Amino acid sequence: MSAPKFLVLPWILVGVFGTLWVTKGSPAVPEGRVLDDTPRIVQSLREIGFLQTAELNLSDAFQYGTQREPEGVVAAIPGMESLVRATTRNSVWVQANGKVTAGIDLSKATIRIDRDAVHVRLPRLQIQPAEVDLKLIDDKKGLFWKDDEILLKAIREARVRFNSSVQDLDIEKTAFASAQTSIRRLLSNVTAKRLIIE
Question: Is 160 in contact with 64 (CB distance < 8 Å)?
């Protein structure tokens, strides 16, 4: 079987970096309080918002079917269950193509800047619902019942299959590593400090 832009900066960080004054004759900025790189780093991450770091293109061809079940007193008649199912059976053969993307919401990242390094702690990876494009190959309608929503149901089935495949392929590890690389590349342009991204 196959298958959004803002950065909320903690108030404590604003308190630490927003109340620094540099006056004539003042001593060097103490360790743990670095003012110069902070606005650029924060702005850089704020402009990103949701960072997509991985995409999987998936394809699957499968048969999907629906049928009615006997109700009331009819269900108690011997042999009626199989008869109702057989005469109301709808089925389709479909080719499903789609993609699953994963990324990180940098609005939830936490940032700590000291004298020598920038520490960025990333939030949990988000895997977006699969996008599905369905092509009908063949269909068969029931003798006494036509399911007008069978293609919509087949799309939902394809989405379940694709999301299951993503779990098997361990997209999280790849997406997280890609996020670290992308953020490191971005921040290296706005600060010379050592970058610790986790």
Answer: no
